[in-house]
């Protein structure tokens, strides 16, 4: 009965309501064993601009979570053979998934279920049958809040690149992924050469522009999967998944060549150029994260000692 009512609500209503929530974007995972409801949700959310994947069992959802990155999960509680609760357990165990926003969809309007889900980490609980518009608004609002929060918590306000907190979090996730799907992975430490001289000669404001300029230039020389973070004052760090030490060195050398070639800042008719020193380290199985970072830092230090303006492994 509930399903039929949902179908009726879904059917004739959805003409002409395209993009009810404009500007929506993100990748959603819909986990529900009800084929009709699931394909309805996929279609409606796609019309609203989302990328939507769907799974009809917990087992399939688990596999999909390991193969793709999702911004939000819509999870049905009553499924067979495993209930939605079993996906909760799986999400909680893995740091990669723990923070994915999650909305429970349930036919049970039961306070114990609601409390249990919210205590387990669900962000919202929507009772079936529901109006699509209400669910879409909840999804939109949860994604917007999550993004705002991430912006504040994980971005460096001066340069807009990720901050150290994000790097510390992300490096563990990347290592998890590397253990699951073996591939080389490297990090690169970057420290601006004689940055004090720039601050001392031209002032702190120019120094800040240099940091912004370098962040921008580095970003242009990285792949979409590379993670650039400001590690400290004038130090940046890059995580390069799927890159051996040698590949990472070549990539950073290209970035350094570009840095050398063009002024990093142009301000009131003056041009400012810099170089940097960079240390690269490839992860090897069993190497603790702290030691991996120390290896890159040591390589960077050697680059300084050998005269700066170079990339060392
Ligand atoms: P080296 O080649 O050995 O790295 O020399 P350096 O002068 O770059 O190194 P040092 O660590 O002595 O100086 C780093 C300077 O970076 C010191 C500090 O004033 C400056 N700095 C750190 N954070 C900021 C910032 O946010 N803005 C500006 N303008 N300067 C910063
Ligand atoms: Mg169900
Ligand atoms: Mg430094
Ligand atoms: Mg420096």
TrEMBL record:
Residues 27-143 form the Response regulatory domain. Signal peptide: none annotated. The modification 4-aspartylphosphate is found at residue 76. GO terms for biological process: phosphorelay signal transduction system. One of its GO terms (molecular function) is diguanylate cyclase activity. Residues 183-313 form the GGDEF domain. Keywords: Phosphoprotein. This is Diguanylate cyclase.
């Amino acid at each position: 009965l509930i399903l039929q009512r949902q179908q009726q609500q879904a059917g004739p209503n959805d003409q002409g309501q395209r993009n009810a929530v404009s500007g929506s974007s993100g990748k959603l995972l819909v986990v529900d064993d009800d084929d009709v409801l699931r394909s309805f949700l996929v279609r409606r959310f796609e019309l609203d601009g989302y990328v939507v994947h769907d799974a009809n069992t917990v087992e399939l959802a688990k596999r999909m979570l390991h193969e793709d990155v999702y911004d939000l999960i819509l999870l049905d509680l009553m499924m067979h053979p495993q209930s939605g609760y079993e996906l909760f357990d799986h999400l909680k165990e893995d740091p990669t998934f723990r923070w994915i926003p999650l909305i429970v969809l349930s036919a049970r309007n039961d306070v114990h279920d609601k409390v249990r889900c919210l205590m387990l980490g669900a962000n919202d609980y929507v009772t079936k049958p529901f109006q699509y518009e209400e669910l879409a608004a909840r999804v939109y609002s949860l994604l917007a809040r999550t993004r705002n929060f991430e912006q504040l918590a994980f971005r460096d306000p001066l340069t807009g690149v990720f901050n150290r907190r994000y790097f510390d979090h992300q490096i563990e996730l990347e290592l998890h992924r590397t253990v699951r799907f073996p591939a080389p992975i490297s990090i690169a430490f970057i420290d601006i050469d004689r940055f004090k001289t720039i601050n001392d000669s031209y002032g702190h404001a120019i120094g800040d522009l240099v940091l912004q300029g370098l962040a921008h230039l580095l970003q242009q020389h990285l792949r979409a999967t590379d993670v650039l973070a400001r590690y400290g004052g004038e130090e940046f760090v890059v995580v390069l998944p799927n890159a051996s030490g040698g590949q990472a060195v070549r990539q950073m050398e290209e970035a350094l060549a570009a840095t050398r070639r063009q002024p990093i800042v142009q301000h009131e008719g003056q041009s400012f150029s810099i170089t940097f020193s960079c240390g690269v380290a490839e992860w090897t199985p069993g190497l603790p994260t702290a030691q991996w970072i120390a290896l890159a830092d040591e390589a960077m230090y050697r680059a300084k000692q050998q005269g700066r303006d170079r990339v060392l492994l």
